[in-house]
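3.2 Worked example (two chains)
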Amino acid sequence: MTVLAGSGVHEGLAGFDIPVYHQSGWFDGDGIGSKLNYLGMAAHGHTRQKLVLGPWGHTDTDSRFGESGIDWGPHAVVDLQTSYLRWMDRWLKEIENGIDEEPLVSLFVMGTNDWLHGNTYPLEGTELTKFYLSSAGDTASAQGRARYRESLRARTAPSRTRSFTILVTHAVSPKDATMS
């Protein structure tokens, strides 16, 4: 919650114990808000929070095709409209329809093109990994050869080492990802 610390936005969520359906996509330019709002509500003990993150952009409609034309397969389609209605029916009309007994968090995993489900975000069992950006050349140009690594190379001179923190809010298409 440090991104908006001091802004008062998330601190004010303590007084709003209301059911919220947080939905976004890995390619949503505003997607950080959905994740931070979910985390903010959960941090205050609000349990009626649903989070769905799919392979789409800033939309209320699911699709198997991403913005770059990638086909994420038939599992990418989850019928968001029906899910919204079930959530609203449960909490606004008090209709017992079982949505509150389903996993509260659903995340689409690109590459496997399937969904993971759980009751917390990050999902139970998630292992956070530090990645280090390194380069064999100039990273400040289109010809730069930057790579993410899970460890620092021993030959990296301390004077050339930089440190920064990044909060990953967007997924990278498997065809565009380079890991070494």
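3.2.1 Second chain
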Amino acid sequence: MKKIKKYILFVSGGVLLASLIYLAGSSIPSTLGSAPMGLPAGSSTVSFISASSTAGFFINPNNSCSSRIISTASTSIMLSFGSTTPTADRGHWQAASSTIAYDSGLYGCGMWSVWSDRAGTISITEFQ
């Protein structure tokens, strides 16, 4: 009877230790959304790109942004988040002459692409 108790205790301890090692080694995502309430987010990059009828990826994946602000000038754009390609009828529409803040908690910090029915310049500000 004592051998069985020792064996069960030994196996239970091993399972507990293995679980703790697994939990300690699992990765916690570095981006948890927007900047915490009351704390500032610093500007990381500002870039200007051309939007055209050929959809193109314009933002490389960045796992540490808190938000991205996109401003359009004289043309409206369609955005897609991730690996999908925007078209005239598929994507997230942003009006001409507008500025929208895209929170990373909702839209992520991954690859984005842009499409427009006519050529124009947009500015992208990424905050960390």
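3.3 Remarks
Residues 55 and 115 are 5 Å apart (CA to CA).
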